[in-house]
Every structure is written in structure tokens, then in C-alpha cells.
Amino acid sequence: MDTKPIVVVGSVNLDLVCSCHQLPLPGETVSGNNFQMFEGGKGANQAVAVARLGYPVAMVAKVGDDEFGKRLRGALKAAGVSVEHVSIAKGVSSGVAMITADQQGQNTIVVVPGANGRLLPSDLDQATPLLRSAGMILAQLEIPIETVEHLSRLAKKFQVPLMLDPAPAQLLRPQLFKSIAFLTPNETEAGSLCRRDGMVIDPSNAQVVAEQLLAKGPRNVILKMGRQGCYFSGQDSGGDFVPAFKVRAVDSTAAGDAFNGGLAVALLQGKDFGEATRFASAVAALSVKQKGAQPSMPTLAQVHSFLKKA
User: Fold this and answer.
1) For the CA atoms of 235, 192, 136, 289, what is the dihedral angle to 10 degrees?
2) Chain centroid to CA 61
3) Pairing of strands 162-164, 82-89
4) Which domain holds residue 252?
5) Is residue 105 part of a domain?
6) Domain presence at residue 208
7) Domain contains 50
8) How many whole angstroms separate alpha carbon 238 and alpha carbon 50?
9) Contact yes or no for 177/183 (Cβ under 8 A)
10) Is 257 a catalytic residue?
11) Using one digit for the tens of pLDDT, what is the confidence trace for 3-18?
12) Cα separation of 235 and 94, whole Å?
């Protein structure tokens, strides 16, 4: 029997990355060390993460009718992502993210949506055969929220599990929560969803936060806490904490995307939640050891080698 693909619905950006000794404060000018351009966007990052792990993956997205759009679509195809439903928005620029990263691996990001803002519910309707065939659908919030909500209804109709990365942080309608099989917020996003911005989330209160989110309706919650680790709980598992692997971080830009791609692959391969989150944590750990979003995504062989040594 053919393996059902992972389908990613989301953003495609070109990342303009400046590295510097320290991140500038408001109104401050600092000297940068280096400038590079990388293919990015949370949706595209997750799709490439899946492809690098050797799992079949397709993307539903939009790019602009500019040189960036050609580059972005070509990079997805070269990585092994099916781009049949990556369409071109006429007269619109491609999405761009301007990223400043310091020597500790921390970063600030400004995103200009461009063509990502033109990914509409009607585009999903044109891709329904693909969505219906999926083993899992991955989504984020860098596309219009009405498109994400329509996607959740289609996923529920087709009985395909939906993994939502609620980034960038924003409030969600109650009905959307109930269509989510796997909700994967980081600390900031979890605080926003709980209407407690600025709340410190760590292993000591992760269970309480997860329970608050589960009460909103998703089937499972996986809290991503960066270098602290992750906590998972829900209908498909008991609650448990998985510590992060200790690595020297160079660039944390797409660590959360690497985690989601790895988690989706592991779950569809039949791993239990403990095994799946450990695998996803390894994918994320390897991703922060290199610069760039998509270029930092590890291969399956690299992940297996890393886990054997861990």
C-alpha cells in the first residue's frame, strides 16, 4: 500500500539574514558580520524538513510572480517537495522575512506576507484531491486565518489529522481548536492562546498549561519549550516531559519547524508519543547547529546517527 503523503499548507518566504554580535535595541544601529539569503517560510520549512527525512510531502502555497518566487518554488522542488499546488500570485511580491541573528543563536524576525496573504479558501478547494489523500496535514498562521479555518473543516470532513503550529501567536476561534489533532505552540504562543501573554512556561507548569489548552478542544497538545524540552499530553497519550538535546546553537530560526516536520513523520511511522517527540527533538537539535532555515534541515541518516550517540 502506498504511503499517504504529508501535505503542508502554509507560507513560503525568502529569508534575508543578517548576523551580528548582538541584537539591536529599538533605535540602535549595530554592525553586522554577514548577510545571506535562504529559502524559508514556516510552511516551506516544515515541508523541506519532511522531505529531508525521506517522507513523501506536497505543499499548497502561493509565491509571487517575481524572481524570488521562481527561486522559492524551484528550491522546494529540488528538496523533493511536490509543488503542483504551489501557485503564482500575479502582481504580488513573494513573502519575505528579514531576520537578525546574534552569536548566541537568538533572533528577531519581521515577515512581509506578500503572496502568502493571497492563499485563499478557494485555493484549498482546488487541492481537495491532494488534501483528501493526505496521511496528515500541517498548517501554520502565516497565511490568512480564514484559509486555516477552511482547512480545518476540510481536514475534519476528510478525517485527516491536522497539526497546527499556532505561529505567529494570535487568538483562535473556539471551533478551530476542536478540529486540531496536534496543537504545537511554543512558550509565547501558548501564553497567547491562554490569554496570559508574558506567562513564563517551563517544565514545572507545563502540565497545567497543556490542560488549559486541551480544555479548548484539540485532541493533543505538544508544548515546545526550546532548550528546556517539550511536554505532550492529550487523548492519544498520557502526559510526559521530554528533555531537549544539548547542542551548540548557531541559528534557531527554524527549530520549531524542524520539530513539527519530524513529529509528523514519526507519528505517521507508528512511533508512540514518547518516541515521536524524542525523534522530533533530535531533528530540531540538529537544525540549530547550522545557519539558515531550509538548509539546516537534517537527513534521516543524520538523525539516526545523532540518536545513536545521544
Assistant:
1) -110
2) 14
3) unpaired
4) 6-11+41-94+115-309
5) no
6) yes
7) yes
8) 26
9) yes
10) yes
11) 899 999 999 999 898 9
12) 39
Mean pLDDT of the chain: 93
Residue 171 has pLDDT above 70, yes or no: yes
Is a pLDDT exceeding 80 seen at residue 302? yes
**Average pLDDT in the 300-308 region?**
95
Distance between CA atoms of 184 and 101, rounded to whole angstroms?
24
Quote the number of domains for the chain: 1
251 residue type, one letter: D
3-state SS class at 19: strand
Is pLDDT at 80 greater than 50 in this prediction?
yes
Region 152-157: what's the mean pLDDT?
97
Q: Confidence class of residue 198 from pLDDT cuts 50, 70 and 90?
A: low
Instruction: Work out the pLDDT band at 252, boundaries 50, 70, 90.
Output: confident
**Cross-sheet strand order for the sheet of 220-224:** 82-89, 57-64, 6-9, 136-139, 162-164, 182-183, 220-224, 230-234, 237-242
| Domain containing residue 280: CATH number | 3.40.1190.20
At 91, the amino acid letter reads: G
Residue of 61, 59, 255 whose CA lies nearest to 142: 61
For the chain, the maximum distance between any two Cα atoms, rounded to a whole number of angstroms, is 58
Distance between CA 270 and CA 171 in Å, rounded?
32
Mean pLDDT, residues 64-81:
96
What pLDDT is stored for residue 204 in this prediction?
86
Question: Out of 66, 165, 251, 257, which one is annotated catalytic?
Answer: 257
Q: Decide if 29 is inside a domain.
A: no
- Looking at residue 247, its amino acid is V
Do 123 and 116 form a contact (C-beta atoms < 8 A)? no
Q: How far is CA 66 from CA 112, 123, 292, in A?
A: 15, 20, 22
